[in-house]
């Protein structure tokens, strides 16, 4: 079963912070849970809108 975009939005809005942010990143960026948990602030580049994933599956 696949959720529609509207259903995903509803689930995400019901989640409390910071879990909402984590779930949005996993869903929107296609991250795996472990990749999300290992993110550091230096992996985010807000000016260029980039996220660097280190040691992801397949390196």
What would you note in describing this structure?
With 59 residues, this protein is mainly alpha-helical. The chain has helices spanning 5-14, 19-29, 33-37; strands spanning 44-45, 50-51. Strands 1-2 form a two-stranded antiparallel ribbon. The model has no long low-confidence stretch (mean pLDDT 89).
Write a brief structural summary.
The chain has 59 residues and is mainly alpha-helical. It has helices spanning 5-14, 19-29, 33-37; strands at 44-45, 50-51.
Strand order of the largest sheet: 1-2
Radius of gyration: 13 Å
Mean pLDDT: 89
Helix content: 40-55%
Number of helical elements: 3
The biggest sheet, with number of strands, parallel, antiparallel or mixed sense and barrel status, is: 2 strands, antiparallel
Structural class: mainly alpha
Number of strands: 2
Fold topology:
Blueprint: H1 5-14, H2 19-29, H3 33-37, E1 44-45, E2 50-51
Antiparallel strand pairs: 1-2
List keywords for this structure.
mainly alpha; single chain
């Amino acid at each position: 079963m696949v959720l529609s975009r509207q259903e995903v939005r509803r689930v995400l809005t019901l989640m409390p912070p910071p879990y909402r942010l984590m779930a949005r990143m996993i869903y929107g960026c296609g991250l795996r849970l472990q990749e999300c948990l290992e993110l550091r602030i230096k992996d985010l580049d807000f000016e260029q809108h980039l996220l660097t994933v280190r040691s992801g599956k397949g390196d």
